[in-house]
What we know:
By secondary structure, the chain is of the alpha/beta class.
Amino acid sequence: MKPLLPMKVALVTGGSRGIGRAICLELAKNGLYVIVNFLSNQKAAEETLELIHEAGGRGETVCFDVADQEATEKSLEALLIRHEAIDILVNNAGIAADSLFVLMSNEEWTRVLNTSLLGFYNVTRPVLKKMVTRSQGVIVIISSVSARLGHRGQTNYSAAKAGLEGACRSLASEVARLGIRVNAVAPGLIETEMIQAIPKTMIKQIIPMGRVGLPEEVAKVVRFLCFEDASYITGQVISVNGGMI
Ligand code: NDP
């Protein structure tokens, strides 16, 4: 039997469902070994891995809460021993907990900020340290149109996503000379469980293209940013939103 060639390794947080699953598949189809992170939905994570295998790719699932610093550190330590390095990191895990600001609970504020922003910090730092020693690596952050456009009930979510975009620009300038690129993708409304509660009539009114996007349409832009075609792009936020200006 032929030995398996070493593959470049990608870690996708929140890879079990929605946009994260599409990113996992897109990267696996393009030759990366994909680590599918998830929070609690093991069945969905295994389905993602199954789809990767069906597409001829390789990968594994790993459960940890990106908002939990200790758990994330432990999981990444183990992953970095096993894989030596993570070449590509996609910070995709994110949640929404919409509520008018005056009615928002401390828990709704903290949970959203902790998943997106603290999660980015918890996952990126250990992975980046290894990237720095190897002078190579790519980081992609999944932001949102809500970082830029205000939406009622999304003060927590907008704050988290705008924070990520700021972090993206600063970190990109910090590590550019080390051969590491950092970019963000800001989707508009994408067909996943996250937007199930939004009425279809409203979607047509707010999106110039008159339809929601597909997870695959976001994943293709992420894939572009991960490979050599994007070798001179860093510190950017790329919108994928059907024309929401
Ligand atoms: P989904 O709700 O479909 O999936 C969320 C994913 O994140 C799941 O894999 C979930 O894991 C994982 N996750 C949630 N919390 C954590 C955590 N604390 N630690 C680890 N993993 C976690 O979301 P989408 O695919 O719609 O969204 C993906 C990203 O895209 C998010 O950052 C979101 O903010 C952003 N986005 C989405 C838009 C949309 O319209 N859908 C628009 C703009 C941005 P599990 O399956 O175990 O629960």
